[in-house]
User: Fold these one by one.
Assistant:
Number 1:
Amino acid sequence: MEKEKIEKYWSRFPDTYDKNQEYVVGNELLNEITDALNDLSDLGEVIEFGCGTGYFTEMLAQKADHMVATDLSNELLERAKIRLKKNSRITIQKENCMNTSFTSKKFDTVFMANLIHVVENPLKVLQESNRILKDGGALIIITFTKTGFL
């Protein structure tokens, strides 16, 4: 799928994104994921691919020196800016997770949730993650669905 179609698809959800997460994943699993993420520490410089409305962003930013939350959708990024406006450790910007504008070996942690199984080319996302991840850095991927996608 070309970038514009993907962006248009995800841009339909700024008002329902969080509820969709809860529906697809279920509150019980989201609570387990939240607990696991709260156990993390010292994430350093973090990038999040597919931040959506910032559902996990604020929690991770508490464990980071700085966090860059990215997404393709302007509408979702605008919602994330509203949600996260009080946190000075978070930068929000539009990026394509398959080909970012960042220099190599920039981040200590790459994080993505519910993304890898919906992108057109998961291998490209993993290659880009490896490129921008510092040696010895952490790649955190959460992929989940309770009810599946149509």
Number 2:
Amino acid sequence: MKILVINCGSSSLKYQMMDTNTKVALAKGLVDRIGLSGSVIKHQKSDGTSVNIDKDIPNHNVAVESVLSLLLDEKQGVIKNKNEIEAIGHRIVHGGEAFASSVLINDAVMKELEANIELAPLHNPSNIVGIVACQKLLPSVMQVGVFDTAFHQQMPAYAYLYGIPLDLYRKYKIRRYGFHGTSHYFVSNRAAEILNKSIKDLKIVTCHLGNGCSIAAVKGGISVDTSMGFTPLEGLLMGTRSGDMDPQIILYIMGKEGISKADAEKLLNKSSGLAGLSETSSDMREIESNMESGDQKCKTAFDVFCYRVKKYIGSYAVAMGGVDAVVFTGGIGENSTIVRKSVCEGMDFLGIKLDNAKNISKDKEKDISVDGSPVRILVVPTNEELVIAMDTNRIVSELKKKN
């Protein structure tokens, strides 16, 4: 089945044209700076040929139209007719408590997505805009929503409840939701395949480390805890997000600095993390480069980042009663040898022993643990788009069988 996978942001649209029979992306790309000056489309086919197109993209309707034109283009395209698109799978950040799995998008689902906007005000509105744009341009094509939060919906209450009055949970659904679920699902299952074991028999800590970072405890294939919480702000230190902190701190700062709620949200989400501590950059590559040149602030930011990852791995090993594998994924997790080395140092007592030669090898997917190590350390490139495509394929196929 040929499925168009859409990941819609406020000013961007990532896409892949997936063939679920071969599990290959026939084409993929990014429409960037939607509604802004200097908008551009970056498009690449599976054979490596690519093109960058500078084009005015005033809204998401035009963005989707442009993607369809490229997919149908004589030189850059991979389909000859719109009818070849059998379904569309959308990445949706927040499903709240309503969605514990992927669903066919209909009017009832759209209403629930709108109700969840207040839980993800930076993400869900853009996801909805992308769905509406596709409905207008491809009205007869079935669409499926795949939620970042869904994989974490089986967490026990003791893992997702906060220590606030229970009535606030009942009224406002304030709880730990977790994010990056599609990625944690993919890499944990891929890890089981690499280890040639049933995921039901494994305790895995998955570390999704990028500009946004989260860690999950995956026991028997189920996420039993995860570092991100009510929003994607909680947990690890990230590119521009603070991660865990004493909640009284922000109240203290608001009082001292006289800043508004909006300014406080911007401070925690946009000006903190690696960027705030290093006073240089939110990009780990720049942090590492500057650190090697003797920049002490970058060294401190790096150390805080790795220390927090290390703490979560240890706590989740305890939460699961042991650990069989630690998996690194995401832009930093897949590419930073020094982060992986720093995180794993001093964890021999848990059975986590990294092999330096394997760690620096050029292989994309690899086992970087010492031979015979009781805990396997794996690097697994994530593939959220494939998960979205396969879930969409499953749901659409089941509906076609019923009809």
